[in-house]
Automatic annotation (TrEMBL):
Keyword Phosphoprotein: yes
Biological function: Component of ribonuclease P, a ribonucleoprotein complex that generates mature tRNA molecules by cleaving their 5'-ends.
Name of the featured protein: Ribonuclease P protein subunit p29
InterPro entries, per the entry: RNase_P/MRP_Rpp29-subunit (IPR016848), RNase_P/MRP_Rpp29_sf (IPR036980), Rof/RNase_P-like (IPR023534), Rpp29/RNP1 (IPR002730)
Subunit structure comment from the entry: Component of nuclear RNase P and RNase MRP ribonucleoproteins. RNase P consists of a catalytic RNA moiety and 10 different protein chains; POP1, POP4, POP5, POP7, RPP14, RPP21, RPP25, RPP30, RPP38 and RPP40. Within the RNase P complex, POP1, POP7 and RPP25 form the 'finger' subcomplex, POP5, RPP14, RPP40 and homodimeric RPP30 form the 'palm' subcomplex, and RPP21, POP4 and RPP38 form the 'wrist' subcomplex. All subunits of the RNase P complex interact with the catalytic RNA. Several subunits of RNase P are also part of the RNase MRP complex.
Gene Ontology CC: one annotated term: ribonuclease P complex
Lineage: Eukaryota, Metazoa, Chordata, Craniata, Vertebrata
Gene: POP4
Keywords: Nucleus, Phosphoprotein, tRNA processing
Amino acid sequence: MSHKRLVQASIPPDQGHILGIVSQSDKQAEMFTNGFLKNSLPGMSKKEIGDFMLHKAVVLKYAKKEKKKKNKKRAKGLNAKQRREMKVFQLKPEHQKYELFLPLHELWEQYIRDLCNGLKPESNPQTIQQRLLKADFHGAILTVARSKCPSYVGTTGILVQEMKHVFKIITKEDKLKVIPKRNSVFAVEIDGFVSHIYGSKFELRSSERSAKKFKVKGTIDL
């Protein structure tokens, strides 16, 4: 049997039953084909369709109208004024408890150990300093070692919020203290290593520090 005759041959009943297909008669097949071509090539006469089929290949699919894409507006976030009005960054008085942030401090300690590949006596202090400067300090226990304002010196607590110009820490007395970074030096200790942060060189958001290059030593005008 030639390839043409094989393609045009009816499917045997036993195979059609398995495939769930019923072969059409020649007349039915012709009616289906004519109807299909009329839907696929709208606006053309039967003669034009015949001429078209002789000279061009036709993709056997129905012509579908393209749906216009709707421009979806992205939801805008809150601006700075709205965040202030909603008090998004304010810690509620009932949450200003030192013990509530102790688990955060423990997580921060483990985070720093992983960041510094383990804090060992033989570790290079300058390498640790550089990594600390780019780290996230939320959960760290900070102590104001030096400040242009004497009343800040000695203040110690867990850092609960860092902004561009200030640190917010919660003390053991459950007091929320807002310490300006400028003109202050902060000490942070972990596993025997004490690092000093010069706030005047640290006035940027924590998310921006990872891409910034720091000098190990800072200066402060007191």
